[in-house]
Amino acid sequence: MSTIDSYSPPGNLDDLDDTGRKVWNNFISDSVEQAVKGPDSSKVLNDSPRSQFYDLTKTGTAADAQQATVTWTAFPRRIKVSSLSDAQRWQRADASRDVQDEYCEWSITRDPTSGKITKVMFTCEGPEYWNLLAQSDPAKVLQLYQTHISPDVKHGDLFGATGTYQPRNRWNDSTTHGAMHLVQVNNTLGAEIELAAAATIVRVINGSELTTEPDLVQCSQYGEPERNSDPHIGGAVNALARQKADISLADPVGLYFDDLKTDGWVTPDGSDPKGYWTRQRGDAVHPVRFVYEVPQSKGFTVGDITINGSPIQYGAQIADYISIKLTAVACRFGQSGTPPQTTCVQFPAAPTDATEAAKHISALSLQGYHAAPHPISRTRRR
């Protein structure tokens, strides 16, 4: 059995110096440790501990290890199921980053004269990484924005008057001015780690083992049932847990682009439409940033390409054909002795007695007062 020395940055990016890489390793390791421990049992019942989830730097991965890649569609399913037509759902998905909740967000550039799309930026980089990079190397953050978003980006645009990095800044807060990293509230690495750990709990309710994605997500309360990502991630991880395996997220921990399918796409000159899908950040196996853009020398734009006979008028049309992925690693199959939970996740009722309620509020306040802030902000499970 072997452990890894440290967790690598997402996509094996090389932005961080040695100190930054150590802080990143600590963040991922701490996040995994917290996810293994699970939530405070006084606040959430039947959701801890998660003893089949483990830290790659502290527990060895056995020789029978297998990797499982989980993929899902980048277009937000909650928008799809609540829209009356394709045109309506594409327009709604292009209107705000806050609805792009499948760990993929995008921003569209249009020709100011014709209105045709000339470029669409896609990102799946978690905000935690950028918060750390901004703390350790603000100049690097500015340089990356100027390279990938616009040479017009200024330090004050990103850090404001206080010098504190603003993830939702003017260049990373809309679907029209750029997309450097994820900003939608649920699109975080912390959420990914928590979800994966929670999904390792096997559930046997009334004598029946839960196996379907809807049953698992409803019983374990580890995500949003209407998303493409949460139920599918949870279902895939739980399938490994039911094989009595130990499970973790493969290094480097992150969300990544899986593929862009271009079946049914046609370009004006007959060229391969996938040739305009350009990776900008992350390695070939762990890409975290793509741009879809046609070189000016070709004489046409993205808006001149058709999908199933219709011209590309929305970035969301492209998102329909993008898949996102994460990779889990499982080992020690058949060896876990962790018993299944026989009850679904429950949330204790708030105390009704005035005295007990006051004690409860006081205890929570003290917990918040004594808790040391983490060097990187982290979003908990929804």
Folded structure, characterized:
The chain is of the alpha+beta class. Helices cover 30% and strands 16% of the residues. It is built from 11 helices and 13 strands. It has helices at residues 18-37, 77-81, 86-95, 127-136, 138-148, 155-159, 189-198, 213-220, 229-241, 315-319, 354-370, and strands spanning 66-73, 105-110, 117-123, 204-205, 208-209, 246-249, 256-260, 265-266, 277-282, 287-293, 306-307, 310-311, 322-331. β2 and β3 form a beta hairpin.
User: What is the 3D form?
Assistant: globular
Q: What's the number of extended β-strand segments?
A: 13
The separation of the N and C termini measures: 34 Å
The percent of residues in helical segments reads 25-40%
Chain-wise SSE layout:
Layout: H1 18-37, E1 66-73, H2 77-81, H3 86-95, E2 105-110, E3 117-123, H4 127-136, H5 138-148, H6 155-159, H7 189-198, E4 204-205, E5 208-209, H8 213-220, H9 229-241, E6 246-249, E7 256-260, E8 265-266, E9 277-282, E10 287-293, E11 306-307, E12 310-311, H10 315-319, E13 322-331, H11 354-370
Quick tags:
4-stranded antiparallel beta sheet, single chain, disordered C terminus, about 375 residues, alpha+beta, 11 helices, globular
